[in-house]
């Protein structure tokens, strides 16, 4: 979970920089190639955040029944 957080922090500035480069570009071949790179980064970022949310909910769900059991027996 920690590595996905650091990866998110590394990926987000790269996406912002690529979006800025796409906006300031004047040549079409550069625009098309940057758009493809941006799309791949957005897709990877989406998958990473989705996995993080799912894992976070799974861990919180699996930890909550254990807390209830510990609370009952103490």
Could you explain how this protein is built, in words?
- The protein has 74 residues and is an all-alpha fold.
- It has one domain.
- Helices cover 93% and strands 0% of the residues.
- It is built from 2 helices and no strands.
- α1 packs antiparallel against α2 (28-73).
- It is elongated.
Which secondary structure elements does this structure contain, and how are they paired or packed?
Elements: H1 2-24, H2 28-73
From N to C, what is the helix and strand string? HH
Helix coverage percent of residues? over 70%
What overall form do the CA principal axes indicate? elongated
Strand share of the residues?
under 5%
Number of domains: 1
Helix tally equals 2
Uncertain residue ranges? none
Taking all Cα atoms into account, the compactness measure Rg is 20 Å
Structural class: mainly alpha
Q: How far apart, in Å, are the first and last alpha carbons?
A: 31 Å
Query: Biggest sheet, in brief?
Result: none
Q: Give the strand tally.
A: 0
Membrane topology: Multi-pass membrane protein
Keywords: Endoplasmic reticulum, Glycoprotein, Membrane, Transmembrane, Transmembrane helix
InterPro entries: Uncharacterised_TMEM39 (IPR019397)
Function: May protect the cells against DNA damage caused by exposure to the cold-warming stress and facilitates tissue damage repair during the recovery phase.
């Amino acid at each position: 979970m920690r590595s996905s957080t650091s990866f998110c922090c590394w990926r987000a500035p790269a996406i912002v920089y690529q979006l800025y480069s796409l906006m300031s570009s004047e040549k079409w071949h550069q625009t098309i190639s940057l758009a493809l790179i941006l799309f791949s980064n957005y897709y990877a970022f989406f998958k990473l955040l989705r996995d993080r949310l799912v894992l976070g909910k799974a861990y919180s769900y699996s930890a909550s029944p254990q807390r209830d059991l510990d609370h009952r027996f103490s």
